[in-house]
Every structure is written in structure tokens, then in C-alpha cells.
Design brief:
about 500 residues; alpha+beta; six-stranded mixed beta barrel; five-stranded mixed beta sheet; 13 helices
Length: about 500
């Protein structure tokens, strides 16, 4: 006889039974624990007298306790098979919203990862001073073409133009840029006047570059792409001397990616005094308009009567930069507006008629249905916005009219066919439980369409509604119709989770 050992083995058995009971559902846990404890007590009573210690009896008790785990797993399996049939997640409103949210998360992640999309979705990166225009000859309609010669710019600078209080010139060339003797590949270099940066606005750190240096080297400003590709993103390059073609210049700074969006897509900006501007070179002229000049603008254009040496009667046009800096949100709103206008042309916007019985749905159920529809629309519009940016600007390095057209087209088609899918999905969901219709049954005969109802009937597996879809729309039955079932139908759906 060893009472401490017997007490320890008995406590271990009780622990086993308690752990086995945790595998059973909460509502049956206490009953099974009592059942196992009673059987263990009965088994011990059938063994040798209690005052004698027997290893065989303790082994049998331990085997019984371990067998309780098998009973627990068996109970769980039976309960899983016989539990009440509840609506599964397949085809439910939650599953639909889950997949839409997943698509939205994927498009948002791509928008954050792709550099071109990130810059485009944050217009603050490329904002410029308000009232800026790009001067062009009236012979050109391409807003990205260089049309003004250096001589014309100098004449405009010397004359007093009404409505303009600032002018800057730059021309694009292909130059080699090297920090030493070894030439680098050719890059697009903008030879610009010193006041260009001050006229455009932007980072305050570039304010000092707007004045001409006294006897020093001309400053050059690198683009973010050139800085990373040719100088490995080394910040120590700022202040070093590099050669831009045949000109020695000092690196003044690095422009953030996507800044300003001026025509030409310059990789570097070499700032020089007006005296070094080539009079025969053709380039771009950026002008800042006064309030008077902005008031005279029509359709983002300003007509200028210019008096220049080459052509005393030359007429110039000032094209606003608003198109380049408006951001994608304006284009997206216009695309959504067009999509909603075109939606009735490809699908019916009706969600079907309702025939109410004594089992009229509650206000909360109706509100739940409309909240579900509104949530789908919000998720779809968000997906359309980010997905259109991903498709249009995934490889963009600067402003591109083609990318804007691509965003307009992709936003329009995603919104149009997405809204069509939303309406079709909503029409195929039972208004009470918001599950998709299943198990269609053909009712009636096509030859009796005008005498009796003929079409497809679908029943909610939870016993809430019937859906009648006419086989041939008529004047008295032209669209699908929901018939709400009253409480007298409940006995047919006993054990199916009718709520």
C-alpha cells in the first residue's frame, strides 16, 4: 500500500479526464466529464479491494482515461455531421466583400510599390506656382513641342508684355555627363535661364539657385533617376564638379521624382545666364501671368501679341499647365460619371419587385441589404481608381498624355462592367439573408405565358423568400419578383437555421 503514489495517480487520471472534456463542445462538457468520472469510479470498484494497491488496476485506469480522448474526438465528429445546417460562407455576403477587399488591397499595394503610380497618386510631388503658362507659336497644336527660339525669348524679355510678369527659357540637348574623364551615356539636359526654378516654385532649397553666381561655375540640378543610376544615389555628389558636355558645372542638388512635369523630360538642368542663350536654338518659354492675364485666358489658353525681331506680327499662345498638374482624381471622377451614364444601356438598374406577405422583412434587414450594396459600390470604385493607376502608370517616368487616356479608358470600363456585375449580383441575392440564389426550377408552360405564370422559380434554402423570374417578360410580369414567405412555411425548413 502506497497512499501518496495512489493519490498522485488518481490526480493524474482526473487531469486526463478534464483535458478530454475540453475537446467536447461547451454545452456538453460537464455532462461528459461526469460520465467519464462515474465510469472510472465503477471500474475501480470492480477491481481488487481499495485497500490493496495494484499496478494492473492503475494501468487499466490510465487506459480508460486515454480512451476518453477517443470518445471526445468521436463526439466532435458526430456533432459535426449532425449539427444544424447553417448557411455556409460560400456565396454569402461576407465572402463577396472579402474578395472585393482582397482585390482592393492588392491594387493598393501595387500603387505603393510602383514608383510611377506612387508619384502620380500624390499630386503634391509635381505642383508648380499657379498662373504658369507655356508659350508656343500658333502654328503648333502639340503642347509638348518646342516652338520658341532664343531670339524670340530675348525680344519678349526686353519688351513689356501685358498680363505677363515673368519669363524663363530652356532648351533640350543630348549631352554627356561625367564626374571625371570618362564620359557617361548621353542624357537629356535642359539649358535653362537662372530664374526658371524661382518661376516654377517647388522645394525651398532651390531658391538660392535662382540668382546668377559671381564668377563661379554654373549650377546643375540632377533628376532623381540620373542621380541613382549614374551616381548610385550618393549624397556626397552634391557640391562636386561634373562636366556637362564641354561645360564644367557644380552639382547643386537633386530634384524629387516627378517634379514639375515640364515638356522635354530633362535628366539634368544646367542653369546659365541669358547672355549664353543661343539665339537660334529652339526651346520652351515658361511665363507667369498676372491676374489680368489669367482673366483673359479662354479654355486654358492666352493669346499674346508678340513683337519679335524675326516676325513683327508673330502671335503666340500661352497654354496652361493645369492639364499636367491636375492629378488623376479629376480624370477618375469624369470616367465614373460617364460609366454611370452608360450603365442603363447595358443592364437594367432595377433590383426586382417585391410581393410582401404577413412576413414582411424588418427595417434592419432592409437597411442591411442597402448597406451591403453601398459597400460593394464603394469597394468597386476604390478598386477602379487604384487599378486604373496601376495599369496606366506602372512604367511611367513623367507626364504622359497617353497614360491619362489609358487611365480614363481603364477607369471607365472597370466602373461600367463592375457596376453591371454588382447589379446582377444584387438581383441574384435573397433580400433577407443576402445569399445567392440556387436550385432553379422551371414552372409553367411557355404556351400559357399570357394565361398563367411561366418562368424560373428559386427558393431560399433558409426559407425566407421565393424568386420568380419570368421566362418571357410581359406587361403584367416584366421583371423578377421576390415573394416573402410567412411563418407558416417554417416547418419545411426545420433544422436549417431559419432566422
Amino acid at each position: 500500500m502506497n497512499p501518496p503514489l495512489r493519490l498522485a495517480l488518481g490526480g493524474m487520471n482526473r487531469v486526463f479526464l478534464h483535458c478530454a472534456s475540453l475537446l467536447v463542445s461547451r454545452d456538453q462538457r460537464v455532462d461528459w466529464r461526469r460520465e467519464w468520472s462515474a465510469e472510472l469510479w465503477h471500474m475501480r470498484r470492480s477491481c481488487p479491494p481499495s485497500e490493496l494497491f495494484s499496478w494492473k488496476a492503475e494501468q487499466a485506469a490510465a487506459a480508460f482515461c486515454l480512451g476518453a480522448f477517443q470518445d471526445a474526438f468521436c463526439v466532435r465528429g458526430i456533432r459535426r455531421e449532425n449539427r444544424e445546417v447553417a448557411p455556409s460562407q460560400h456565396g454569402s455576403a461576407g465572402e463577396c466583400l472579402f474578395w472585393l477587399a482582397g482585390l482592393l488591397a492588392l491594387s493598393c499595394i501595387l500603387a505603393c510599390v510602383l514608383p510611377g503610380v506612387y508619384v502620380e497618386s500624390h499630386p503634391a510631388h509635381y505642383q508648380i506656382n499657379p498662373g504658369l503658362i507655356l508659350l508656343q507659336s500658333d502654328l503648333f497644336t502639340d503642347s509638348s513641342a518646342a516652338t520658341i527660339t532664343g531670339q524670340q525669348f530675348l525680344d519678349l524679355k526686353a519688351s513689356r508684355q501685358r498680363g505677363i510678369d515673368g519669363l524663363a527659357f530652356y532648351r533640350m540637348t543630348k549631352e554627356t555627363l561625367s564626374p571625371g574623364l570618362h564620359a557617361k551615356p548621353k542624357w537629356a539636359v535642359a539649358h535653362a535661364s537662372f530664374n526658371l526654378f524661382a518661376l516654377l516654385g517647388g522645394p525651398e532649397s532651390f531658391a538660392a539657385v535662382s540668382s546668377e553666381p559671381s564668377g563661379g561655375l554654373p549650377p546643375v540640378v540632377l533628376s532623381d533617376e540620373l542621380w541613382k543610376r549614374e551616381f548610385n544615389g550618393n549624397p556626397k555628389v552634391i557640391g562636386n564638379v561634373v562636366r556637362v558636355g564641354r561645360i564644367a558645372a557644380r552639382v547643386f542638388g537633386v530634384l524629387p521624382r516627378g517634379s514639375w512635369r515640364l515638356p522635354g523630360r530633362a535628366d539634368a538642368w544646367l542653369l546659365q545666364p541669358n547672355t549664353e542663350i543661343s539665339r537660334s536654338a529652339v526651346g520652351y518659354v515658361v511665363a507667369h501671368t498676372t491676374r489680368f492675364g489669367q482673366a483673359e485666358m479662354y479654355d486654358d489658353r492666352l493669346h499674346i501679341n508678340a513683337f519679335v525681331t524675326d516676325d513683327p506680327d508673330a502671335d503666340l499662345w500661352g497654354v496652361s499647365f493645369d492639364e499636367r498638374t491636375r492629378g488623376p482624381w479629376t480624370i477618375f471622377r469624369f470616367a465614373v460619371f460617364l460609366a454611370f451614364l452608360a450603365l442603363p444601356a447595358i443592364t437594367s438598374v432595377s433590383l426586382g419587385e417585391s410581393c410582401f406577405s404577413s412576413h414582411r422583412p424588418s427595417l434592419a434587414r432592409n437597411l442591411y441589404r442597402w448597406v451591403f450594396l453601398s459597400t460593394k459600390i464603394v469597394l468597386l470604385l476604390s478598386i477602379a481608381y487604384f487599378a486604373s493607376l496601376d495599369l496606366s502608370y506602372w512604367n511611367a517616368t513623367g507626364y504622359s498624355a497617353l497614360s491619362e487616356y489609358a487611365q480614363l479608358a481603364s477607369s471607365f470600363f472597370i466602373c461600367l462592367f463592375g457596376m453591371r456585375w454588382i447589379l446582377l449580383d444584387q438581383r441574384e441575392r435573397f433580400p433577407v439573408c443576402l445569399r445567392r440564389v440556387t436550385h432553379p426550377a422551371q414552372v409553367g408552360q411557355a404556351s400559357r405565358t399570357f394565361l398563367a405564370w411561366n418562368g424560373t422559380e428559386l427558393m431560399c434554402t433558409s426559407g425566407h423568400t421565393l424568386l420568380h423570374v419570368p421566362g418571357l417578360p410581359t406587361s403584367w410580369f416584366g421583371t423578377q419578383r421576390w415573394m416573402y414567405l410567412d411563418t407558416s412555411w417554417k416547418f419545411l425548413f426545420a433544422g436549417t437555421g431559419v432566422g
